[in-house]
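Escalation from tier 1.

The customer reports that the assembly of three entities below gives different structure tokens on two consecutive runs. Tier 1 could not reproduce it. I'm attaching the input and our single run for tier 2 to review.
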Amino acid sequence: MAAPPLIRGTDLSKVYGTLTALNNTNFTLMPSEVRALIGANGAGKSTLIKILTGAIAPTSGTVEISGTPVALGDPRAMIRNGLACIYQHANLAPDLSVLDNIFLGRQPTSRFGLVNTKAQRSEAQALMARHGIEVDVDVPVGNLPTVKQKEVEILKALALNARIILMDEPTAWLSASEVTKLHETVRALKSTGVGIVYISHVLDEIFAVCDTLTILRDGKVVAETDVAKINRPSVVELMVGEKLARDSAQASSKNRHPRGTGEIGLSVRNLTKHGVYRDISFDLYAGEILCITGLIGSKRTELLQTLFGTVKSDSGTVSVTGAPAVFRKPSHAMARGIGLVPEDRHRDGLMLGMTVTENLALATLAKFLHGLFLSSKGMAEAARASIADLSIRPPDGRHEVGLLSGGNQQKVLVGKWLNLAPKVLILDEPTVGVDVGAKAEIYGILRRERERGKAILVVSSDLEEVLTIADRIAVMVSGSLVALHDAGAIGSKELVREIGGIAA
Amino acid sequence: MKLRPATSALLFFTALVFAAFSVWAPRFATATNIENLMSGFSFIAILAMGQAFPILVRGIDLSIGAIVGLAGMVVFDLALIFHLPGYLILPLALLAGSLAGALNGFLVAYLRLQPFIATLATLAAYRGLTYTISGRQLVPGLTTTAITDPWIMGIEAYFDVGGWLGLTKWVNMPWIPLSFFLMLLVFALFQVLLLMTRFGRDIYAVGGNEEAARLAGIRTNVVIVLAYTLSGFAAAIAALIMVARFTTSTEALGTGMELTTIAAAVIGGVSLAGGTGSMFGPLIGAFLMGGILLGLTLLGISQFVQQIITGMILLAAISNDRLLAIRRRPKLLAISSGAS
Amino acid sequence: MNSQKVINAKRRNLIKASMLGTAALAGAAGVLFGNFGPQSTGLGISQAKAQGTRYKMAFIQWQPHTVPAAWSKGIEEVLKPQQVIDYELLDGQNKVEVQASLMDTLINQGASVIFLQPIDSVALAPSIAKAKRAGISVITLNIDATEAHAAHVEMNHYFGAMDIAKAMGDVMGGKGKVAILNAPPGIIIRDQRTNGFVEGMKQHHPDIQVVSDQVADWDRKKAQDVLNTILAANPDLGGVYGVNDSMALGAVDVAKEKGLIGKLAIFGNDGEIAALESIEAGELTGTQYTDVYQQGRLAAAAATVLATGGVAATAFTQQSHLLMPYVIATKENVGSIQPAQRW
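Tier 1 run:
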């Protein structure tokens, strides 16, 4: 009496222009199955999820739900078919009560069109009893802790008679005990026949709560297996691919300068922010590139923000070239010679509507002041120097930055901070969305700045990148710095294992 | 209905202001002054309640005053040029206001225009339309002709409620204007709509988290259009009250009301961030502002100073709104921003 | 020759009017009320002073502008010395609902006289009726209301504009094209002045054509833009009538820039100080000058009589109506307007 799978996606492909985001992918989910869906950034995970929720239609392929083909690209059809998605960020109306959120958009009404609160309440109580969830239904959702908000979302899905629940990074904002609680809820749901697709970067959770595992890489399924039949290192290897091992072997070890000139640029001791990162200590030397790597959610970005003065730490010290430093805002950090090239260059880094020259001068406007006025000649000269130095193309400062390629935008952003002549340069994911050629150029710029004696700190989740440019490698797992290696002394496999949170 | 702490604070502040004026401002605590407050600010309260709907869905209606002018001129033309009976004019005026509001909603929901920009444009357009259709210019002599239709003029009626209840034996009771009762009616209607119907929940959902509302199958665009329609509808009711009060309409009727109504709504705890507030706040907010203006005038304080004070109260209310929004944000941040 | 005589006669009128001092005004105000039999109970200011009675009076203006400011100054000049009258200036903010609310408040305060410059003749009528029922006299300034009230003191808009048309036509030699820089529609003054001007041209200079009538929002800057457009379409324009002085001065700005001073006859209306100075400088051709202080003084004098003379507000079945004397001020006679009369 084999029941048909809850979801059967066959030959799903999605092509955006020249980019194939998803390539002939098959995907199934059975009742009472918790299936993990994992993959690195750009592996096609979110494309697959969007197809399943109906947010986008695939270029080709079909989806059957419980054996019946369904219309694709229609979110409401998917909801009607019993598929609900719990997004990483909550889809709740914060000022409405739990009850109203559960029945959002379809409250039962009495005669005269008034909302029938009694019916809502009893249905919600029944659902909670059946699935072992407990929430005060009268509180505004915005006042609930995050894990309770997740439960409200689950209730919302269940109230829709969902038999398939997609959970996208459901634990991203939860504490350890909350994660455990959520997992109990997941198991309870499973026992009632609900199928769950569990998307997460955290391998611990996958091994704790999932039955089966689908790994995507470069738009293709590279593994589909029972969780019991696979171990963590193989999971990570499957995620990042074999090419990595090859590349790291090729990276020349001669070119590495661990601890650079031996002079300490930035020193961090016991830095802690409760619930985010804890007890972080390391030294960054002038003339070296130190890479901090780890999975998404390992709180690397938060650490950088503290070093740059946008997020306060609870305890611990930071010193720059030997002198203690307290940064309450970025200008403090800048004054002490720290520059930060942020991850999202569009949001945090560049004025896309302004010219290359203006962007390059933005952090150093004071240099170009003549009395009250900016010297446009001075700015243009400085920009010409930067453009030549960084080989920004097209080599014309009058171009709008928004019209440049991603790689050249990134070079402008780096150039902007180099103009500040920082002693310590911090880069957050410096090559995201940058093509291979530009990547190599940016690496070249970083190496050259290293030779010029700068202390460079790079945060990257791209292992290939880390193994290519790092002089030393630090690994962060869930807010802790778990390891610090000289780049030549560690192979990609060991690194992968450490990143996955497996004690070496 | 449970009173939210913000609402109780507002009530407390209002009581404090009224008590202070009663002590210090001569003739503030008189039946006549209360009557003036009711007849002079009931229509403002109605407008503020209408304005609350767009704000609840994270929008704003800058054209609300222009819709007042437009609806007022529709009444004027229908009564004095077309000599339609009042029982036809009333629904037609309400229709005109609602349509003007619906167009705002359409621009915001379907053409995805910024509410501020869209309604700023219709503010100019509706005001221009009012001048174009103005019977005062099309037909000579109407400038000095009063509207006498009993259906419309009936709105400007006063009731000796105190006398009926026999209270006048003990205190001098104000006569209550019909506009005040209309305001209460609108309040009851809007409040029930907002708190007890599915449409009301949809309003809060769209204002609180539009994406969530959409994914829950709520037709967010329809909800937005209806929110702006209600704002236009309220503007038309206010226009009727004003026309009845002045026995005419002018091209400039309702000028500047957008600011007054936004102020009353925000003072009443309707958050500019959307999704928070009810009809009770704007109502109190409107009468609080009215009380302050009347009190300051009775104290002989220059109106230019009054405008400064009104501006400062608005600034305080908006700052408070921001503060509450920021304080709420850590929780919402957790659910609305991406992972690190 | 003949017109010179008329001007001389007017000048005498003007001088005579200006000689009326504050003390004489109360008497002059008596002239205002020809339409009722005063049921005077013999109360007076001196008595009020002895009894410690205080009177409250207020002026609700349309919106801040030179004209109501000058009225208010004239009103104060009369009311202050009497020592028993509290007077304040209130601002209608160009909104009928604000004016109505202020009327309500003044009625609540038991004012004895309200001076009102209504934004709309009809819209304020219910408020005036309410004031009357409360025994409060209302004196309107410049814009009449449809509800009968104590008195209306007005600049002579219609006949003044007719005389402006005549004077302008004389300067232009009885032929040519003229344009009007007008106020936004919906305001009675605008209609009175425009109609008077058009009618005056018809009567005195039938060969002169009004080729353009454009709205310039009472505003000098706006008037410059509007006139530039008009001149582009009518390069042979011979005269411009600004319905207030600000717009006329805007026209002067354009004439100066284009070297049309002397070729273009430009007339304003009201007679504010900037306009008189422009006439003296030989730029503005002329304006209708009204002594606005005097207008305020007359209203205040009437108010004093109403407040202290025991005249009931309801006694006015037919309101009295006073048209202010005026002069068409041009380069020839502007010098006779004394500094104290300039506003």
